[in-house]
Amino acid sequence: MNKWIEKIEAPQLDKLKTEEKASINIGDTVKVGVQIREGDRTRVQNYQGTIIRRHNNGLKSTITVRRIFQGVGIERIFPLYSPAIVKIEIIAQGKVRRAKLNFLRNKKGKAARLKARG
Amino acid sequence: MERTMARSFVGRAVGSGGARVGARRAQRGRLQVQARAMERGVGLMGTKAGMTSVFSEDGKMTPVTVIGLKDGGCYVTQIKTKETDGYNAVQVGYDVKRETLLTKPELGHLKKNDCPPLRHLTEFKLESIPEGLEVGSELDPTEMFSVGDKVDVAGRSVGKGFAGGIKRHGFSRGLMSHGSKSHREHGTTGPGSTPSRVYPGTKHPGQMGDKRAKVKKLEVMQVEKDMIVVKGSIPGKPGNMMTITKAKGKW
């Protein structure tokens, strides 16, 4: 990264980086609160699932959260430090040995569970 | 631009019959600078730093490109007027370098106007020279552009090499199987016996990219002493030299 990009990203990251967001791990089951605007009203929509990958790229870091909805696997990618992500609540921590949990895509039901960490 | 033109001219003169070229040059009077279209105002030169994102208060993510100015900045190196040069233009230099990296004629041109040794020179052709612009003065981005302005950004696009019609012009592909032998061919290039030639400018395979490209009406998101942040993407790779001017047309 060069000094000019740094100059744009550093102050934003200072403002947006929180302990809560920085500390999440792969394999965690999380509840992500996304702020949604409906007309002139805002509300928080929750999305719960397992983090299957984390893309570390400073301000542009993202997390991919997978869940099964009505029998269909859904993966949503969230910009981790976006102000629209108002909260990330860790519900369970999974014990995983790899950085990308792609193997979960081929598993269903009980087989798609992760062992609890700790 | 002026510099590259001058260089290629010298190269040709050496390569093919010097006397004839010399005569042609004498006929023309003096070296012609490639005339680009009129600009709305004096522009800046900068270096593409790369892309990033800017988050707004309500969580909107905007893709932006950062154009940085290297230490030393941009200078006005010459002001051309209709009386002396036949047209109005402001020549701007960028990228301060060691003296040894420039030729003596280039150094002489810059020293005459009290400029440091600059690697790149470019001209912005104008209807009239703005007042208060002095030769040898440094250009300040914060005075030239403000947030919300629209700018045109030009630079050299990423080179794709010798590309076929499909990649270069978006032609359709032929069948890959079922006996077809026309896989990625370009098809017909025009009628036969009349005119019994291919019209100039017909779309063909050839060099793609690595030529001047301009993106118009980009919104300025942020301006600092040493950089400009614009919304969206610009041509070329990080590290490439760009020119930024106020956008033409209505906005």
Question: What distinguishing features does this structure have?
Answer:
heterodimer; A: 118 residues; alpha+beta; SH3 type barrels; 5 strands; 15% helix; B: 251 residues; four-stranded antiparallel sheet; 6 helices; disordered N terminus
Q: What does the model show?
A:
The complex is a heterodimer of chains A (118) and B (251). Chain A is α+β, with helices and mostly antiparallel strands and 118 residues long. Chain A has a single domain, classed as SH3 type barrels (Roll). Chain A is 15% helix and 42% strand. Chain A contains 2 helices and 5 strands. Chain A has a 5-stranded antiparallel β-sheet, with no helix packed on it. In chain A, strand 1 and strand 2 form a beta hairpin. The termini of chain A are far apart. Chain B has 251 residues and is α+β, with helices and mostly antiparallel strands. Helices cover 19% and strands 33% of the residues of chain B. Chain B contains 6 helices and 12 strands. A 6-stranded antiparallel beta barrel of chain B has the order 1-2-11-10-7-12. In chain B, strands 5-4-3-6 form a 4-stranded antiparallel β-sheet. In chain B, helix 1 runs antiparallel to helix 2. Chain B is globular and about 70 Å long.
What is the strand arrangement across the widest sheet of chain B? 1-2-11-10-7-12
Straight-line distance between termini of chain A:
37 Å
Main sheet: strands, sense, barrel of chain B: 6 strands, antiparallel, barrel
CATH architecture of the largest domain in chain B: 2-Layer Sandwich
Number of helices of chain B: 6
Please tally the β strands of chain B and state the result: 12
Name the helix and strand elements of chain B from N-terminus to C-terminus, one letter apiece: HHEEEHEHEEHEEHEEEE
Family (chain A): Belongs to the bacterial ribosomal protein bL19 family.
Main location (chain A): plastid
Protein name (chain A): Large ribosomal subunit protein bL19c
Subcellular location (chain A): Plastid, Chloroplast
